[in-house]
């Protein structure tokens, strides 16, 4: 997968979605708004599906794609919408931490030592593996996306994109879980 191309597609799709939303509310530009919005949703769906299909080989790109989309949403977020800004900023920080965990899990010796710092109790584990920053970011983001999907007024195409993004987080956790097991020799 061409990471640069994927991230470019994600950024352009988020920009198109935002522009479409703005034009939908502008007299005389409604048609252009609908077209931009639908094009953005379609291209975002394709990009996120590609990232998911390649996650086993390039998990980092899947996470970077989601983080890039979040950063674009943050950039386009109304300055008065402090709740959304706070949520997006937290998501960005969580994905920074997830990327750090992804870096560590690739080193068996380092990860074996890190694994010993996690309690063996259930709330600290995800399927018997450490519930580290990677899992925490994915779980929190699935919750965030689920909350958005429950909002009235979101059309079904956008809900489908949200469902794809949530599925990507499940895929990310599954692939990461395998990396954890490999790092720990299980």
Short description:
The protein is built from seven helices and two strands; from the N terminus they run H-H-H-H-H-E-E-H-H.
The averaged pLDDT comes out at 95
The total number of structural domains is 1
Helix content: over 70%
| Count of DSSP H/I helices | 7
The share of residues in extended strands comes to: under 5%
Secondary-structure content class: mainly alpha
Straight-line N-to-C gap: 28 Å
For this structure, the quaternary state is: single chain
3D shape: elongated
Tell me the series of helices and strands, N- to C-terminal.
HHHHHEEHH
Strand order of the largest sheet: 1-2
User: How many distinct beta strands?
Assistant: 2
Residue runs with pLDDT of under 50 for 5 or more positions: none
Indicate the radius of gyration in whole angstroms.
18 Å
Major sheet size, sense and barrel closure: 2 strands, antiparallel
Written account of the structure:
This protein has 186 residues and is an all-alpha fold. It has one domain. The chain is built from 7 helices and 2 strands. The chain has helices spanning 3-24, 30-53, 59-76, 82-105, 108-115, 133-149, 156-183, and strands at 125-126, 129-130. Strands 1-2 form a two-stranded antiparallel sheet.
């Amino acid at each position: 997968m061409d990471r640069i191309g994927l991230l470019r597609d994600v950024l352009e799709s988020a920009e198109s979605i935002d522009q479409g939303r703005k034009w939908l509310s502008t007299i005389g530009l409604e048609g252009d708004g609908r077209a931009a919005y639908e094009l953005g949703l379609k291209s975002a769906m394709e990009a996120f599906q590609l990232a998911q299909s390649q996650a086993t080989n390039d998990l980092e790109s899947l996470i970077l794609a989601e983080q890039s989309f979040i950063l674009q949403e943050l950039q386009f977020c109304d300055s008065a919408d402090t709740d959304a800004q706070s949520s997006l900023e937290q998501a960005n920080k969580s994905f920074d931490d997830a990327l750090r965990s992804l870096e560590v899990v690739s080193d068996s010796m380092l990860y074996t030592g890190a694994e010993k710092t996690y309690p063996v109790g259930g709330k600290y584990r995800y399927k018997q593996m450490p519930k580290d920053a990677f899992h925490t970011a994915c779980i929190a983001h699935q919750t965030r996306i689920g909350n958005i999907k429950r909002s009235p007024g979101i059309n079904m195409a956008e809900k489908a994109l949200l469902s794809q993004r949530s599925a990507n987080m499940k895929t990310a956790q599954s692939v990461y879980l395998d990396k954890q097991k490999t790092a720990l020799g299980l």
